[in-house]
Specification:
heterodimer, A: alpha/beta, about 40% helix, B: Rossmann fold, Arc Repressor Mutant, subunit A, 9 helices, DNA binding (chain B), Sig_transdc_resp-reg_receiver (chain B)
Chain lengths: ~140, ~210
């Protein structure tokens, strides 16, 4: 009769992908007050194995996963190939112009050098969350 | 008499804006060597002046733009061009760029941000890419314009009928809604289809979907 598996609370989702546990827990703590469902992944592989929700509000992605240069950007490009578009902010432990340009061409909405300015990042994620909420309100459920 | 010249706007030109004369000369020579039409400007203002008025929207090709120049900077120039609805893709070249600057330029729609010194082939690849993008955008724009013109040729009544046909309504329902006879709707519908130059509902839908 009724499908009870539907997520009734419909919390917006924030994905974090960073190989450094410290980086993930700092972000989780920083973003916890925004009232989203935060999901952590230590690698691109683990993230891609996951059943990615394309309606997620945002993805915060380290540019150089496992210290491999631009592996995070490669993940973003793979997602574009699979036609998964989640608003993505790249956080870069080290950066150079070609990597930044490549990230922006792969549809990142921003490329921020670490250490990030906390309140600015929070503000940016907040605005992405409110965009998701308003589109969800207008999306009919089938 | 007929004007046999093709419209100038379809000829793609690479506009190079840089305050360094040596860069202008070498890039111009490089492009000449591969038969790409190009024009050089010693600063942003001279480009804007050369294409004042509406003509900037009719340009075809791309822009190679230096970031740091005396007077108007490359980034300011990008902003001005955006405000003027200049359709040319922009490739930035810079000797002194940093990451935030590159990110900002890309956010505002630059298609490439290259650091000097660069390999000639690298720049040529970018330019080819930019010219392709520009051509695709032009085709799309002229198609939208064409569809828009067909839509404009419709009478108010035909337009009302089209909206309802596209929404999947039957002639009978449309007739009821508009308080007209079914026969009249059929005539409006046939005229509308002819003006839109389509033969089936599917064709009409496709045309309208590709309008933007």
């Amino acid at each position: 009769m009724f499908n009870h598996h539907i997520n009734h609370t419909r919390l917006p989702i924030i994905y974090l992908v960073d190989h450094q546990r410290k980086g993930r827990s700092a972000l989780t703590e920083l973003l916890a007050p925004l009232g989203a469902q935060i999901e952590n992944f230590p690698s691109a592989k683990r993230f891609l194995q996951h059943d990615i929700n394309a309606q997620a509000a945002c993805l915060l992605l380290e540019a150089h996963l496992e210290d491999k240069k631009a592996s995070g950007i490669a993940l973003l490009e793979q997602m574009a190939d699979r036609e998964i578009y989640i608003p993505t902010i790249i956080l870069a432990s080290s950066s150079d112009i070609p990597t930044a340009v490549r990230a922006m061409r792969a549809n990142a909405i921003d490329f921020i050098e670490k250490p990030y300015v906390e309140h600015m990042l929070v503000r940016q994620v907040k605005s992405l969350l409110s965009q998701t909420r308003s589109t969800q309100l207008h999306t009919p459920t089938f | 008499m007929k004007d046999s010249k093709p419209p100038l706007s379809f000829e793609q030109v690479v506009h190079i804006i840089d305050d360094d004369e040596a860069v202008l000369d070498s890039l111009s020579m490089l492009l000449d060597s591969v038969d790409i039409k190009n024009a050089i400007y010693p600063n942003a203002q001279s480009f804007l002046t050369a294409h004042e008025g509406n003509s900037i929207q009719q340009l075809s090709g791309c822009i190679v733009l230096d970031i740091r120049m005396p007077g108007m900077s490359g980034m300011e120039c990008q902003q001005r061009l955006e405000a003027l609805k200049c359709p040319l893709p922009i490739i930035f070249i810079t000797g002194h760029g940093d990451v935030p600057m590159a990110v900002e330029a890309m956010k505002k729609g630059a298609i490439e941000f290259i650091q000097k010194p660069f390999r000639e082939q690298e720049l040529l690849d970018c330019i080819h890419h930019a010219l392709t993008l520009n051509k695709t955008a032009q085709k799309r724009a002229s198609h939208s314009l064409d569809v828009a013109q067909r839509c404009e040729s419709l009478t108010a009544r035909e337009n009302e009928v089209m909206e309802r046909v596209v929404a999947g309504l039957l002639n009978k329902t449309i007739a009821n809604e508009l308080n007209l006879s079914q026969r009249t709707i059929e005539i409006h519908r046939a005229n509308m289809m002819e003006k839109m130059r389509v033969k089936s509902l599917a064709e009409l839908m496709t045309l309208l979907l590709t309008k933007e």
